[in-house]
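Problem statement: downstream parser choked on a complex file, so we are re-checking the raw output for the flavin-adenine dinucleotide run. The parser issue turned out to be on our end (a line-ending mismatch), but while we're here, posting the original submission so the record is complete.
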Amino acid sequence: VEEELDPEAAAIAAKLAQYRGVWVFIEQTEGESAKVSWELLGVGQELAAKLGVELCALIIGHKVEHLCTEAFAYGATKAYLVDAPVFFHYRTEAYLEACCHLITKHKPEVILMGATGMGRDLAGAVATKVATGLTADCTGLGIDDKRNLMQTRPAFGGNIMATIMCDKFRPQMATVRPNVMPMPEHKPGAVGTIIREDFTVPEESILTKVIEIIRDSHNKSAVDITGAEFIVSGGRGMMSPENFAILHELAEELGGVVGASRSAVDAGWMPTDRQVGQTGKTVRPKIYIACGISGAIQHLVGMQDSDMVIAINRDPQAPIFEVASYGIVGDLFQVIPALTKKIREI
Ligand code: FAD
């Protein structure tokens, strides 16, 4: 039995039905792609299959056609390419114009972007201009039986997971943090269609000019923990910055890096680029060793998708043990040096 819609609902349904296709914004800097874009093509494949539509890459830049080939290898079947000198550096105004032009012309149903500096900036501006909804920092995406994008993200300080949908507007927009979605299979040689969009923006209409790019030289020791295969993380239980030396020793033996909970970062024991969690980085290493970390939900959302979690905590009730593959109840100042010694012997 077909459900009868009231005229207002029928008008909305007719408007929404004009929008088709899942788009992933391929973030790049000087032609080099951001890994999160490929992760989004992975989840995009599932969403496109459920909706029965094409998975498309949205590529904006200058001399970036090579990214179309990569997008096809990661599962896109179509690439919308906007390639002009004015798009060489990311500038909100120019990219915003290009995105809105394409959205108005092709009407995608879903648009995904990385929750990076660029993605967060662009997605907010685009959603405002095309007057649709945006869910930032999603950790899960799905499709319901009415073609709505179910967008899950932590809410109320990470204490609950909220599932949000945008059922009256299209496109449905979401940003997703790097490392939350698994990388899809890379199939070199996969083919797709490139739609070259002859679109540009007059340089003089853009208020922002990039004069020079200065790499951050203050933070020479900055470490990208998001790509590490082994992470040894310390929390408040480490008691002092000096005590992190035992974590560095263990991490070195494993060929990994040292991470930290927010308490350890807030105490000034570790730099902010090492923080794992809701307001830090999301990591998915092969092994995550949590040392003196209680396992607050805001920490767990950043590491619970690791292949293996080993927790060392002297409190047997610590919530970290709920996500741990292996748990050691004991004093970390005894357990960690013993573990490092054992690994050295192997
Ligand atoms: P604690 O909770 O104090 O735990 C210390 C643990 O060490 C205890 O379980 C204790 O049993 C154990 N311990 C102590 N001594 C020893 C020993 N000798 N041997 C073995 N175990 C020992 N937190 C994050 O980590 N990342 C985030 O991104 C983040 N974002 C947040 C965002 C918001 C909006 C809010 C409200 C909070 C956020 N937090 C975040 C903070 C989070 O709620 C917790 O406060 C924090 O994770 C606790 O850090 P911890 O586990 O190191 O410290």
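For whoever reads this later: Residues 157-158, 235-237, 261-264, 275-280, 292-294, 296, 298-299, 302, 312-315, 318, 331-333 surround flavin-adenine dinucleotide (CB under 6 Å).
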